[in-house]
Amino acid sequence: MKNKGLNKVDLIFEKINAEEVLKKAWEMSNQSIIQQILDSGLKGRGGAGFPTGLKWKYTAAIDEPEKYVVCNADEGEPGTFKDREILDKVVYKVYGGMAIAGKAIGAKKGIVYLRGEYRFLLSQLYKELEAFHKMIKEIGYDFEISYRLGSGAYICGEESALFESIEGRRGEPRNKPPYPTTSGVFEKPTSINNVETLVTAMMIITHGPESYSQLGTKDSRGSKVFSVSGDTPIPGIFELELGMTVQEFVNEFGDGDTKAVQVGGASGFCVPRKKFQDTIIGFEGVPTGGSMKLFNSSRSMYNVLHNYLDFFAEESCGQCTPCRVGCQQLLRGVEKVKKGEIHSNYLNELLKLADTMKVASKCGLGQSVGNAFRTIVENFREEIIY
Amino acid sequence: MYQLGNLVKDLSDKHGRTRESLLPILQGIVEKHNYLTDEAMVEVAKELDISAAEVYGTASFYTFLDTQERGKYVIRVCKTITCSMKGKIEILETLEDMLKIKAGETTSDKQFTLLETNCIGWCHKAPAMLINEIPYTELTPEKVVEIIKGYMQKK
Q1: Which pLDDT value is given to residue A2?
Q2: Residue A101 and residue A54: Cα distance in Å, rounded?
Q3: Last residue of a domain, one of A157, A180, A213
Q4: Has residue A381 got a pLDDT over 60?
Q5: Among A219, B86, B90, B147, which residue's beta carbon has the most beta carbons within 10 A?
């Protein structure tokens, strides 16, 4: 397959006349809004990649007077910082996306769940919200947005844990089904979307679905905001068309000595140099919520893995045993192997444990710990052992 | 220990007295006093008519809702991978030297608490830390000394 190469895009941070777009959306039927989002091929930008149009369609289909649009701004994945930048620079487009979603699914209330680490942004965000409320009321929208703050818990980025947190409880994920589209926050039908997804949806309404779906590949339409950090001369936030290979990414952002790229943060995948050429960044290859970390040959991949496992051991909510005990055992296990307290074959047992966690954990946290674990251990085994 | 005064009542008036008000109320107390005393949690329980165990159980889930005594300025140094690659250890050691405490401790004058935290979303400007809600980025030991001196003078 021919890949698309690395192309910069300016959609998310593009200046638009929000009022005009919201007027346009107001004139559209709810079905045609949803159809445009479906046609664009947009998949959720938080990382999981569920088709946004379907989420809206399912929520719209439920006959219930009280529904919610929730904006997931609990950006906690290590290496992701694009939502903060989006909120800081173009929050009016986040609000706009929420209002359009609200109209499409029949919700009058929107809630932004902002991670506690970003509280310093709040006063500015409130200021812009006031102006936004006034503007949409004049157009005719009956939609109101409020804020809820997190308090330092990575797991609250998981949608059902986030609902629990909004409802005033411990952020422990719920069993699924029911899914949020039928029973979300306050057990009402809820469309929960990532910050960037909502902005993208508004841009699709602005420019039409055709131009958006021409970007990217069959499985990964459009563009995406990447958070680039680690061993790179140009760390920062970049919007790029989906469909490039890791090699093309490294050519642009690497320091000439890149040995691995961690795509998708601690819960994502480690791509070693030998696989750069054949790995596409997107849903057909390695998916990402935006986190791209580059490591050069001076870095110990044991330290990287240890850091991630330490992170998960702390952030596991502790509700289900596979994740609570699994994270701790993986952490202790690699420590023992490194110190030579146990034979290196023990790594094979740990890989089995990571597989068990994938199958048996209740939510995405425990299910994805094995991603980084397996890809680091398999590709850098000697660095873990010696 | 701090005096609660009417804080819990005022926050309950503002946010309401249903279960969903619990986090905003606890966050309001922490915003003002940086941690939750047993007394504060019991007061919140009474105000919302739920058990104190429910309040403690919820608070203790969240890293930022501390139930241990904290100083006036809570310093949280990011320890996740990029910050750790870009010199987090030097930043932490500089803070420990200046404040004469270890990570996890509070100065005896109750001004500063030094903690480590997970990713705070500033990886492109690592190393980074929060002091209360304010982020400080692209830190160097020299920069840290200046920042902390500023807070010491604020007292």
Answers
A1: 57
A2: 12
A3: A213
A4: yes
A5: B86
The reply to whether A310 and A207 lie within a common domain is no
Interchain CB distance below 8 Å, B124 and A167: no
Task: List the single residue in B with minimal CA-CA distance to A304.
Answer: B81
Contact A168 B20 (CB under 8 A): yes
Tell whether B15 lies on the interface with A, counting CB pairs under 8 A.
Answer: no
With the C-alpha atoms ordered A319, A156, B89, A341, is the resulting torsion angle positive or negative? Answer: positive
- A178 and A307 together in one domain: no
Task: Determine, yes or no, domain membership for A107.
Answer: yes
A99/A105 Cα distance (integer angstroms): 10
The whole-angstrom separation of Cα A254 and Cα A266 is 19
Which residues span the domain enclosing A59?
Answer: 18-213
Question: Do residue A154 and residue B134 have CB atoms under 8 angstroms apart?
Answer: no
Mean pLDDT, residues B33-51: 97
Q: Is residue A346 a part of any domain in this protein? A: yes
Residue A270 placed within a domain: no
| H runs (alpha helix) in A121-158 | 122-139
A181 in the same domain as A50: yes
- Of A178, A213, A248, the last residue of a domain is A213
Q: How far does B54 lie from chain A, in Å, by closest CA? A: 9
- Nearest by CB to A154, which of B58, B118, B130? B118
B105 CA to centre of own chain: 12
Given pLDDT bands bounded at 50, 70 and 90, which one contains residue A6? very high
Angle at A10 between CA A9 and CA A11, to 5 degrees: 110
| Interchain CB contact of B81 with A (< 8 Å) | yes
**End-to-end CA separation in angstroms for chain A:** 39
C-alpha to C-alpha distance for A302 and A377, rounded to whole angstroms: 9
Task: Please choose, from the candidates A118, A174, A70, the residue with its C-alpha nearest in 3D space to the C-alpha of residue B64.
Answer: A118
| CATH code: domain of residue A318 | 1.20.1440.230
Token pair of A365, please? Answer: 């946290």
Assess B65–A contact: CB distance below 8 Å, yes or no: yes
β-bridge mates for residue A35, sequence order: none
Q: Count contacts between A and B (CB, < 8 Å).
A: 114
- Residue B118 to chain A, least CA–CA distance (Å): 7
Task: Output phi, psi for A219, to 5 deg.
Answer: -90, -20
Q: Does the residue A234 lie in any domain?
A: no
- For residue B18, the chain A residues in CB contact (below 8 A) are 168
| Domain CATH number, residue A57 | 3.40.50.11540
- The answer to whether A235 and A83 have CB atoms below 8 angstroms apart is no
Report pLDDT for A5.
86
Average pLDDT for residues A69-74, to the nearest whole number? 98
DSSP string, A171-209: -PPPPSSSPTTTS-GGGS-EEEEEHHHHHHHHHHHHH-H
Nearest residue on chain B to A227, alpha-carbon basis: B124
* Domain count within chain A: 2
